[in-house]
Amino acid sequence: MIEKIIDADNITAVKKYIEESADIVIMAHRNPDGDAVGSSTALMHYLRGLGKNAHVVLPNGFPDFLKWLPAADEVVAYDTDKEKAVNLLNDADLFFCLDFNALSRVAEIGDVVSALGTPRILLDHHPFPENEFTLSLSHPQACSTAELVFRLIYRLSGEMAITKDIAECIYTGMMTDTGCFAYASNNKDIYIIISYLIAAGIDKDLIYRKVFYNYSVNRMKLFGFVMYDKMKVFTASNAALITLTYKEMRRFNVVKGDTEGLVNQPLQIKGVRFSCFLREEVPGKINVSLRSVDDFPCNKVAAEFFGGGGHMNASGGEVYGTMDYAIERFKAALSKYSSLLTK
Ligand code: 5GP
Ligand code: MN
Fold it and tell me: Pick from 5, 20, 262, 332: CA 20 to 30 A from residue 118's CA?
């Protein structure tokens, strides 16, 4: 039996909004990951099955290892297809906001959405959502937004509504957001849900291979280089830092998705509880990814030192400045939080 975590009143309200809408746009966060793309395409398939004109609009493109997802080729990226994206947003009578908790996370889409009076339904698992949504279904205990999409569809239409396409998208979101069920994945419902997805026809082993056995030679070499040359372990603080400059990214022809998972690697080292990855995506702008194990709150570090946020064990932010400055911020964070890391 799956626990009903979404409030019955919210289910009724979502049902009414869907019934009263014909054109629906689903959006997810910038630099979309497996959960952002998986949850939004799953909901798109469901809504299309109900006869709705549903589309996914994302702030920018997503990694190649997600391109096989059913109808992923129909996803509209705002940065490269602005006219189409704006038209879809303008024409919509309902928005679904998936896998983010603040409109600032969808970049320019957020400005367009803010200026429109279109109802916005939040469905998300990041803690501390902003008060910017018409209806807020915020469930930080869920392993992924894809899990929440399953729960929503299941409550609205029952298990028979879960088609193979929907199930593939949902499984991909759940699998990628939990590191293949290695973290945030102790809820028994996750495995009941997976049993429904398998019943709907997914090949979970094949999905694993499509997502994780799909790397380029460049990416493998990049990982080797980074592990050998670019990782610094702060043994006394149980922490590790990886840095990658713009120049190094060019040297390995890094493309979207190539650095995915790199930040998790140092957590495999005995004792390491906190990992930080600083990558200079464009000269002068450093993207920050933070990961931790057990109760070390990397979202607090992200908010205090890197102008970002996220989950307790997976968060991110940005630094505008040089790599040296970003490293300084990391070291300042480490000295402030060392007591929590060594307790
Ligand atoms: P990643 O390291 O994969 O980019 O991000 C890890 C997690 O942190 C994701 O759940 C993402 O939504 C969240 N995150 C990344 N960057 C930011 C940010 O700038 N602000 C907030 N609030 N969350 C972020
Ligand atoms: Mn997510």
Answer: 5
The pTM of the full predicted model, rounded to 2 decimals, is: 0.94
Q: How far apart are CA 58 and CA 66, in angstroms?
A: 14
Which residues are bridge partners to 318 per DSSP? 287
How many Å apart are CA 249 and CA 265, to the nearest integer? 18
The span from the CA of 311 to the CA of 290, in Å, is 10
Please state the atom number of ligand 1 nearest to the C-alpha of residue 126: 10
Measured in Å, residue 317 CA sits from the centre of ligand 1 at: 6
Q: Convert the pLDDT of each residue in 78-116 to its tens digit.
A: 999 999 999 999 999 999 999 999 999 999 999 999 999
Closest ligand 1 atom, CA of 29? 12
Q: Interior CA angle at 174 toward 168 and 179, to 5°?
A: 125
Does domain 8-212 match CATH 3.40.50.261?
A: no
If DSSP codes are grouped into helix, strand and coil, which group holds residue 215? coil
- Mean pLDDT throughout 225-236? 98
Enumerate the domain spans of the chain.
Answer: 8-212, 217-342
Question: What is the CA(306)–ligand 1 centre distance, in A?
Answer: 11
CATH classification for the domain delimited by 217-342, as one of 3.20.20.210, 3.10.310.30, 3.30.565.10, 3.40.190.10: 3.10.310.30
- Let me know how long the chain is: 343
State pLDDT tens for residues 18-67.
999 999 999 999 999 999 999 999 999 999 999 999 999 999 999 999 99
